[in-house]
Specification:
By secondary structure, the chain is of the alpha+beta class. The chain has one domain. It has 8 helices and 6 strands. It has a 4-stranded mixed beta sheet with strand order 2-5-1-6. A hairpin with a 4-residue loop joins strand 3 and strand 4.
């Protein structure tokens, strides 16, 4: 009887140790995930374009506005060194960016209002051509067309990662001086793939209360 009780106690202690180890690993991974997402969010300025509606016509026009705003913004951001500087550069020119988008729409024969703001918002994990970004809170240049009831288009206006894919420039080159080598490796999958790591970030955010 005493031997049975001793064995049961030993098994219980092993389970407790395993649970403590699992909790410790989860906590460590969660802290890493949170720090990784926050570090990236501090370095990039997202671009969020919202179409007037989900009609094929409005979705096509959304891309015209995207291209016009990106072209205008890229000229303004040519000398920006970090995200804060990029935001400071764009802030006085929001009406000009909106006008560039409105002019692109006008060429289609229908004029919808375009508004451009700088805002904090949550983005889901998103894969692009050659890189991905984890879910989280980011600072964003938000472009809203008309009623703003259509599907979104997300990317990154600083560093110019969206333009990198258009110009066939590498992510490493576009992010040079803005993202660290480790951050570039993370978003491009060079350090072993971002899928599992970004799922971990999303899981941790959900565990801590979501967005």
């Amino acid at each position: 009887m005493k031997s049975f009780s001793s064995a049961s106690s030993k098994k219980l202690r092993l389970w407790e140790a395993a649970l403590l180890l699992a909790f410790g690993l989860t906590l460590t991974a969660g802290v890493w995930a949170s720090a990784s997402e926050s570090a990236l969010a501090d370095r990039v300025l997202r671009l969020h374009v919202v179409a007037n509606s989900d009609s094929d016509y409005d979705q096509a026009r959304k891309l015209l506005v995207r291209d016009a705003v990106l072209a205008q913004a890229s000229q303004l951001l040519d000398s920006a060194g970090d995200r804060a500087e990029a935001e400071a550069v764009l802030s006085p020119h929001l009406s000009e960016l909106a006008q560039a988008g409105a002019q692109a729409l006008a060429r289609t024969g229908r004029a919808d209002p375009v508004t451009v703001t700088l805002t904090d918002q949550w983005f889901p994990t998103k894969e692009y051509d050659g890189f991905a970004l984890p879910a989280g809170q980011y600072r964003a240049l938000k472009v809203t067309i008309g009623e703003g009831q259509g599907q979104n288009w997300w990317c990154v206006v600083f560093p110019p990662l969206c333009l990198a894919s258009v110009a066939e420039e590498s992510v490493e080159t576009a992010a040079e001086g803005v993202l660290s080598e480790d951050q570039v490796a993370l978003i491009t999958g060079q350090d072993g793939g971002y899928v599992l790591k970004f799922r971990l970030i999303e899981w941790w955010q959900e565990l801590m209360g979501g967005n």
